[in-house]
């Protein structure tokens, strides 16, 4: 053993010592590293909790649209921090109170200084004030809230924190609400505030005046629908559309029935509070006027029978419903002789007598009306031609009973009657009228004073009609129609415009009246091509007039229902103007109410497109139909042409004059330019002057003429 011990060397002892020391250092290092990791994890958790709390604060501030601010007296600086929800960015503004005040609206500086001073010097611990602050280029309303966190020994504030919020939209909403409340109270239109379940919560003085109540209180708390006698608010529609509009009747406290136009709309305040605003407009007078005008428009003024337009609509309704009926066409024989020899007054009496006899014979079983002049039509559903032929003969007998004595002569009326059946003889309106008309002419050929039922063989005698159709088609296809101009004149007789009118001079049929070939063109679908050619001619005339005279006049062109309902027409019309370098404002498109009867929605779309493109739009033959007024509500026409039927006789008949003046006054109140057509006599002029008509058209001034003649007249001769 002694030998083993003694054999140990110093180098071995040193190595063992180093190894032991190394193990101690390694253990100490590992212990230190473990402690460091533990402390780092603890620190991380603390930091994480702090960050989460900050994020919660930032989220809360973002959700309330608030910004955090802090002010310390030590540095006299305010720092405003705005937080973003979707990013880690923080918008910060830092500056002194002086720098902040530089941005404050001058009217709000004194108030802000007062509130700040009260908090700063110990009078108040809380601050709340709204003021205007300039951000970017505009002033925004800001609400500032704050609280003193620390004060010095003398009570002065050392640290103040708080929040700010942009309340611009809130302020605007409040202002709008106050304005609305003021408008509500002072409005001349009756207005009410309703709860969502239609209970009246407030009403203005105009409503109280309309209803004839003594006080408002008796109406507050009532169901709004209880006011109305007829139509009421449709709650389902209101919930769906958020607004409704309708007409109804109310009964005032004096027992008077008034017609009102009602509009109810849903509103929400900035606080998301829902309520309803109802407005009412008394339209009783307008309804009465419309009823009177409708009555006049529906009926012939002389006889009291239905007029041409109403008859046509009655026929249209039966044709569209495919209900069988008999059409009777009555033409008086000998009427011209009575009119010429006994005078127009006696002629009118005879027309009234025939109208009464027609009503007595056919009125109980159908519709009877005056077609025009001495022509009448009866539309008789669910009848046979044979039975109607018997009644027609009885009618002829009654008509012939009256004798008109003129000096030593005796004049007697008779009638030739044509009868046609729908759908046996024709399944179209124009076709059926033509059949009845052909049968009537056959009755005349047989000696007049007869009734004749249409026979298919009559078409064989109408070969000229077929020839005319073919000839018209060739004429249109080869652009051989002529286009004349008739001027439009003001009260001083000065030329202000013109109308382009189509004329047909046929090599086979001679001069064919537009009253003949235009219906044929419409039936054969040639009217659209004629309309485009008329528009081309108008542009040519305008260009020529500008080149020769330095200026031109606007020209109007008649547009058929078929053409107006063609979706390509607005673009076609604009292209024609562009190709001829003519502004659309020089083109006035005239249309009749027939386009609305066909398809009102499509017509309104076309009219709006044309108006947007710059074309002037005119409603032609106003007063000859019965629904023109409703079309004036649907679309704002620039021009209305009053039908010549309303002008004829105004110098002889006070009622006709009163009707004419009332109609003109109504149109002017709608700011619509009026053109009176059919001014044929100088005696009409004082009445045009009285009504302050803007433009006139008629044979008194000129007849339609070729363009070269028209241009020569107005360049070489002074205006009338």
TrEMBL record:
Pfam families: EAL, GGDEF, PAS_9. Residues 465-718 form the EAL domain. Residues 1-12 have a biased composition (Polar residues). Residues 323-456 form the GGDEF domain. Residues 125-179, 244-295 form the PAC domain. Gene3D superfamilies: 3.30.70.270, EAL domain (3.20.20.450), PAS domain (3.30.450.20). It comes from the Bacteria. The keyword Iron does not apply. GO terms for molecular function: kinase activity. CDD domains: EAL (cd01948), GGDEF (cd01949), PAS (cd00130). Residues 1-20 are annotated as: Disordered. Keywords: Kinase, Transferase. InterPro entries: Biofilm_reg_signaling (IPR052155), EAL_dom (IPR001633), EAL_sf (IPR035919), GGDEF_dom (IPR000160), Nucleotide_cyclase (IPR029787), PAC (IPR001610), PAS (IPR000014), PAS-assoc_C (IPR000700). NCBIfam families: GGDEF, sensory_box. PANTHER family: BIOFILM ARCHITECTURE MAINTENANCE PROTEIN MBAA (PTHR44757:SF2), DIGUANYLATE CYCLASE DGCP (PTHR44757). This is Histidine kinase.
């Amino acid at each position: 053993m002694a030998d083993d011990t003694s054999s140990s060397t110093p180098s071995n002892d040193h190595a063992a010592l180093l190894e032991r020391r190394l193990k101690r250092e390694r253990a100490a290092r590992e212990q230190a590293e473990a402690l460091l990791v533990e402390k780092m994890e603890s620190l991380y958790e603390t930091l994480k909790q702090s960050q989460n709390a900050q994020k919660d604060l930032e989220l809360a501030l973002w959700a309330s649209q608030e910004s955090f601010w802090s002010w310390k007296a030590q540095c006299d600086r305010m720092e405003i921090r705005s937080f973003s929800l979707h990013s880690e960015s923080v918008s910060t503004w830092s500056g002194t109170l002086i720098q902040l005040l530089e941005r404050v609206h001058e009217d709000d500086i004194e108030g802000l200084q007062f509130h700040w001073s009260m908090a700063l010097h110990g009078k108040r611990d809380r601050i709340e004030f709204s003021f205007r602050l300039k951000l970017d280029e505009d002033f925004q309303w800001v609400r500032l809230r704050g609280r003193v966190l620390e004060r010095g020994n003398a009570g002065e504030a050392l640290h103040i924190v708080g929040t700010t919020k942009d309340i611009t939209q809130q302020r605007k909403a409040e202002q709008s609400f106050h304005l609305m409340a003021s408008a509500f109270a002072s409005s001349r239109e009756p207005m009410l505030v309703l709860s969502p379940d239609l209970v009246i919560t407030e009403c203005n003085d105009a409503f109280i005046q309309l209803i004839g109540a003594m006080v408002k209180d008796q109406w507050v708390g009532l169901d709004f629908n209880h006011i109305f006698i007829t139509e009421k608010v449709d709650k389902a529609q209101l919930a769906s559309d958020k607004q409704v509009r309708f007409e109804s009747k109310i009964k005032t406290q004096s027992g008077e029935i008034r017609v009102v136009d009602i509009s109810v709309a849903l509103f929400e305040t900035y606080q998301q509070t829902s309520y309803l605003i109802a407005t009412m407009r008394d339209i009783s007078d307008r309804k009465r006027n419309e009823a009177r005008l409708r009555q006049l428009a529906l009926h012939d003024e002389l006889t009291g029978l239905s007029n041409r337009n109403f008859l046509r609509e009655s026929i249209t309704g039966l044709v569209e419903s495919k209900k069988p009926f008999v059409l009777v066409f009555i033409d008086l024989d000998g009427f011209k002789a009575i009119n010429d020899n006994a005078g127009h007054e006696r002629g009118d009496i005879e027309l009234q007598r025939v109208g009464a006899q027609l009503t007595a014979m056919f009125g109980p079983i159908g519709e009877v009306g005056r077609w025009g002049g001495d022509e009448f039509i009866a539309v008789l559903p669910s009848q046979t031609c044979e039975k109607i032929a018997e009644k027609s003969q009885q009618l002829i007998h009654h008509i012939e009973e009256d004798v008109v004595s003129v000096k030593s002569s005796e004049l007697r009326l008779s009638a030739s009657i044509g009868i046609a059946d729908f759908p046996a003889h024709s399944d179209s309106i124009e076709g059926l009228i033509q059949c009845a008309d052909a049968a009537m002419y056959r009755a005349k050929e047989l000696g007049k004073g007869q009734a004749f039922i249409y026979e298919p063989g009559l078409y064989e005698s109408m070969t000229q009609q077929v020839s005319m159709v073919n000839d018209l088609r060739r004429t249109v296809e080869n652009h051989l129609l002529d286009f004349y101009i008739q001027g439009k004149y003001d009260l001083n007789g000065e030329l202000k415009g013109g109308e382009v009118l189509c004329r047909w001079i046929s090599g086979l049929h001679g001069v064919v009246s537009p009253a003949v070939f235009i219906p044929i063109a419409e039936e054969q679908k040639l009217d659209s091509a004629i309309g485009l050619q008329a528009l081309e001619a108008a542009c040519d005339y305008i260009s020529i007039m500008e080149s020769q005279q330095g200026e031109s006049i606007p020209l109007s062109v008649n547009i058929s229902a078929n053409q107006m309902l063609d979706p390509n027409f607005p673009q076609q019309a604009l292209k024609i103007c562009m190709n001829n370098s003519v502004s659309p404002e020089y083109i006035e498109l005239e249309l009749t109410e027939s386009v609305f009867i066909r398809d009102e929605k499509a017509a309104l779309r076309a009219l709006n497109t044309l108006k947007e493109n710059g074309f002037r739009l005119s409603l032609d033959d106003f007063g000859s139909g019965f629904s023109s007024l409703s079309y004036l509500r649907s679309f704002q026409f620039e021009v209305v042409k009053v039908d010549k039927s309303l002008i004829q006789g105004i110098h002889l008949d006070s009622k006709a004059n009163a009707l004419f003046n009332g109609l003109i006054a109504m149109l002017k109140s709608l700011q619509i330019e009026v053109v009176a057509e059919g001014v044929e006599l100088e005696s009409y002029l004082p009445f045009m002057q009285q009504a302050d008509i803007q433009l006139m058209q008629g044979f008194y001034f000129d007849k339609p003429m070729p363009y070269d003649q028209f241009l020569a007249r107005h360049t070489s001769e002074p205006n009338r």
